[in-house]
Design brief:
heterodimer; A: 163 residues; Glutaredoxin; 7 helices; 4 strands; B: 579 residues; alpha/beta; Ubiquitin-like (UB roll); Alpha-Beta Plaits; 19 helices; globular
Chain lengths: 163, 579
């Protein structure tokens, strides 16, 4: 079972928007991917509830939609947190130990890459090079950048955002 | 058909222009190894086992998808081809759980055979291996992705043929797996348990839930009175597990084997089928005469029933209220038969041998019991029975032919043909027409509903009424027909649906026929012929003339559709979620 990190709380407005997107694309060849893009714009992510609406609306099996969503990295089945943590796994950061930083963040928050904490506060992404190799290894939290990190720095940094 | 001239391994051939290289080679008895290819089901060219050299082409080409063309020259067995195939196979094997000795498919595995045929004697690539939990939640189907080669034959069977679509490829690259949405178990999604994925799988990644332990335990329990019943289609497949040609009927040997295994009563589900015809035929005549809900749709196929509950809940009232034959028969064994034999029904253990894995789910449905006694206690597939016979040390091929036990020794030919698409309809018509017209039929064969076509239709004049019937097998065909009925494009009085293409003879619990053999023979037709042949040679060919059934009604049930019959032999259905 996929960990259900955060309950779905889509609004009526979001549902109406999605329905009109589906109506716009219904019957077209290759409708699934553009609809998924729009759905992710509307909801921020693609939980089972949204995928079921798309399956029903476009008459495409849920298994096929889920297959597409998990194939492409742009699609996310988990919401993003209030604080989006990015750990750079580009070459420079990686050789400077960003893998260990990532493991520490995962351990502290109890979630995996691509997931969101149940309180909706944090999500983790493993990013490619963000162009700050001079500061390697680098972690970003929303627009804040933390460089030249060691594993022991991580807990204090996260604590700042938990308050 | 336009023909083209090609050369394979120097041999000149003239083949139809729509052939692939694989088909052309096969027609000339040249074997090209395959893995992801399965005739009529899956053709993706992804496993690269069937690669061949096409003179003038830049790379090796996949024979299963490469079309022939005039003047083409193909080499199927050069060193370059053999080396490339072996590398591809070794790469597949490097991420495979190679526990062949304890695998369900030991000696029946296409991957294992390929390793043997291609001379793989070592795995050069010992890389990372994916390890997955085995999904054993479903009462019918076990999925073990550690044995999966990602050929997608199961996906194609589930999605394209059955339109059940509960599995697909997920993730990408090395993380790719065949899974249900959100990694749910097969037991948590609208899987209908038809098992067509199992018979499509080249390896041990899909198998039935094994219930043989329960059956052994019952047989070894001196307190238990253990009776067994075998579905019609089982006799048309079981022999294959013992090396007999496809389409060999082994009715007598099967009864002999079961008796030697220690079953206290050995019965034929054909008797249950005759009973079904009495009840369903009566239900049909009543609905036709009294303006009941039509079309009446048959309810023998549990894969179809669950499909209908998930996808066509608006048709639940069209389904016959009849339980399927083995459930009916189980209920009769625990009442009428137990009473007749002076056995406490609580100590009776009913085993059904079925060509089907959906029957495992069906027998576990809460409504399948009478007075807290389960109709059927364990369901095993044809394959599981074969394993038990082998484990019993019985030389099946040398057994004499024996009969089923009294008081259900006789079953009609109508009951036998239940195992093939069109068989239930034909069996019903033999009885319905005679009852409605009040006279004997001159000819019992209803040719219009025979054959392996996925959708068959016929209109028959019965006692002055035009009765329109349809027969479908394969759930994709059922979906199409029901959509047509829903949209008013078609209308019928009576519809037979079997979940598996070809009917029960090619059910998900039947012996697995490998992809190479499936290129040469029509398994559906051969196994069905075994049943029609048995029907032809039986003295009684109509359910209502089965003397055991007549006695059952006169001594116990009174008449079809009676209160007692409803209590024991009928059921109801439940709307289930689409996702």
């Amino acid at each position: 079972m996929e960990k259900n990190t955060i309950p779905f709380n889509g609004t009526k407005e979001q549902e109406e928007k999605l329905k009109s997107v589906i109506a716009e694309h219904k019957g077209q060849e290759g409708a699934v991917i553009p609809v998924l893009h729009k759905a992710q714009e509307i909801y921020g992510y693609l939980p089972i509830e949204v995928q079921e609406m798309i399956s029903e609306g476009l008459d495409v099996p849920l298994a096929e939609i889920y297959g597409i969503v998990t194939f492409y990295t742009q699609f996310s089945i988990n919401p993003k947190g209030k604080y989006q943590i990015g750990i750079c796994l580009g070459t420079a950061c990686y050789v400077k130990g960003s893998g260990d930083i990532l493991e520490k963040v995962k351990e502290i928050l109890g979630i995996d890459v691509g997931e969101c904490t149940p309180d909706g506060l944090f999500s983790i992404d493993a990013t490619r090079c963000i162009g700050a190799c001079g500061l390697a290894p680098v972690m970003t939290i929303n627009d804040d950048v933390y460089g030249r990190l060691v594993v022991d720095d991580v807990a204090d940094i996260i604590k700042k955002y938990q308050q | 058909m336009e023909m083209v001239n090609i050369k394979i391994n120097g041999q000149s051939l003239s083949v139809p222009s729509n052939y692939t290289v694989l088909e052309a080679a096969r027609s000339a008895n040249i074997e090209i190894p395959t893995l992801c290819y399965l005739k009529d089901i899956s053709k993706t060219g992804s496993c690269r086992m069937c690669i061949v050299e096409v003179v003038g082409a830049r790379n090796l080409q996949a024979a299963c998808v490469y079309p022939v063309s005039e003047g083409m020259e193909v080499l199927t067995n050069t060193k370059k081809v053999r080396d490339a195939r072996r590398i591809n196979l070794e790469l597949l094997l490097s991420n495979h759980d190679r526990k062949c000795l304890t695998c369900d498919r030991n000696q029946k595995c296409e991957l294992q055979k390929l390793a043997d045929d291609l001379g793989v004697n070592t795995i050069t690539y010992e890389g990372e291996r994916n390890v997955y939990d085995v999904d054993e939640v479903s009462p019918s189907i076990v999925r073990d992705n550690n044995k999966c080669v990602l050929c997608r034959r199961c996906v194609s069977a589930c999605k394209t043929i059955q339109t059940v679509s509960v599995i697909d490829a997920t993730e990408r690259g090395f993380k790719t797996t065949i899974a249900s949405p959100f990694n749910k178990s097969l037991g948590e999604v609208p899987c209908v348990n038809c098992g067509q994925c199992i018979v499509a799988c080249p390896t041990g990644a899909l198998r039935e839930k094994d219930n043989t332990d329960e059956v052994w335990a019952a047989l070894n329990d001196p307190e238990k009175y253990v009776v067994v019943q075998t579905a019609p289609a089982v006799r048309a497949g079981l022999g294959e597990e013992f090396g007999m040609p496809i389409g060999t009927a082994v009715t007598g040997k099967m009864a002999a084997a079961l008796r030697r295994m220690g079953f206290d009563g050995v019965f034929d589900t054909d008797t249950g089928a005759d009973l079904t015809i009495m009840e369903e035929g009566t239900e049909f005549i009543n609905r036709l005469k009294n303006g009941g809900k039509l079309p009446l749709i048959t309810s023998c196929s549990p894969g179809w029933i669950k499909f209908c509950e998930h996808n066509f809940p608006d048709f639940l009232d069209n389904l016959s209220s009849c339980k399927s034959p083995h459930q009916m028969f189980g209920a009769i064994l625990k009442t009428y038969y137990a009473d007749k034999m002076g056995i406490d029904p609580k100590s009776m253990f009913v085993v059904s041998v079925m060509p089907c894995v959906a029957k495992k789910f069906e027998s576990s449905r809460p409504e399948m019991e009478v007075d807290s006694l389960r109709d059927v206690d364990a369901v095993i597939s044809t394959r599981e029975l074969a394993k038990m016979i082998k484990e019993s040390g019985i030389l099946f091929n040398k057994l004499p032919d024996e009969k089923f036990d009294r008081p259900f020794e006789e079953a009609s030919g109508a009951g036998v043909i239940f195992g093939a698409t069109g068989g239930v309809m034909e069996a019903a018509l033999r009885t319905v027409v005679e009852v409605m017209e009040g006279k004997s039929l001159d000819r019992l064969d209803f040719d219009a509903v025979r054959g392996t076509d996925g959708i068959k239709e016929a209109t028959l004049n019965v006692a002055g009424t035009d009765v329109k019937v349809a027969v479908v097998s394969g759930l994709g065909n059922a979906r199409k027909l029901l959509n047509d009925i829903r949209e008013g494009k078609a209308d019928y009085h009576f519809v037979e649906v079997m979940a598996c293409p070809g009917g029960c003879v090619t059910g998900g619990g039947q012996p697995i026929v490998d992809s190479q053999t499936r290129m040469d023979v029509d398994v559906k037709a051969l196994r069905a012929a075994a049943l029609y042949n048995e029907d032809k040679n039986l003295p009684i060919r109509k359910s209502h003339e089965n003397p055991d059934i007549k006695l059952l009604y006169s001594e116990f049930l009174q008449e079809p559709g009676s209160h007692k019959a409803h209590e024991l032999l009928h059921t109801h259905y439940t709307k289930r979620p689409k996702f």
